[in-house]
Amino acid sequence: MKILVVYYSRTGVTRKVASSIAQTLNADIEELIDTKKRAGPLGFAVAVKDAALKKIVPITPPQKNPGDYDLVIIGTPVWADTMCTAVRAYLTDCGKDIKQAASFCTTHTSGIEQANRQIADIIAGKTIAAAGFRQKHVKRDEHIPVLDAFLEQIREPQGGKDTSAVE
Ligand SMILES: Cc1cc2nc3c(=O)[nH]c(=O)nc-3n(C[C@H](O)[C@H](O)[C@H](O)COP(=O)(O)O)c2cc1C
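Above: query sequence and flavin mononucleotide SMILES. Below: predicted holo structure tokens.
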């Protein structure tokens, strides 16, 4: 199975999970680049607003065509209880080309189910697995059991069940 991992990461948490998924599944990987500055307190505040308003902010054109893959795994940080703007822009533009998807989010505490559900909505329910990871668990490498359950779902899909890490 040809797999692509597509993700956005502002501070590295989602990147860490995405990289380990790509390595484990021998998948290609694509990092989405937001065209809007997201660094610093102002960048954070604007990002919250853009995400809450579900704005489509342009991203740098992706290098890989999702239509070339059997499965696309989408990774996003939770922003304002939804997906980040770069992932929303990507799915709005390329979602139609995705044959089958899985999604995961990283978060401080909230928004995992909403973000995964909204990703599934944009790509018309083509998700076969979903997961969520608390940033503190990722930073301490305590996310491995949830990651393993997510990879198991991908190998043996059961209809997009959410293996949320949130207690
Ligand atoms: C703009 C913005 C909005 C966020 N909104 C939420 C939120 O609604 N709920 C939450 O628990 N964490 C929220 N967070 C925290 C991130 O989801 C969390 O730190 C994530 O793991 C960061 O991933 P990254 O390092 O890949 O960017 C927000 C972070 C940012 C930058």
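Residues 3-164 form a domain with the Rossmann fold fold (CATH 3.40.50.360).
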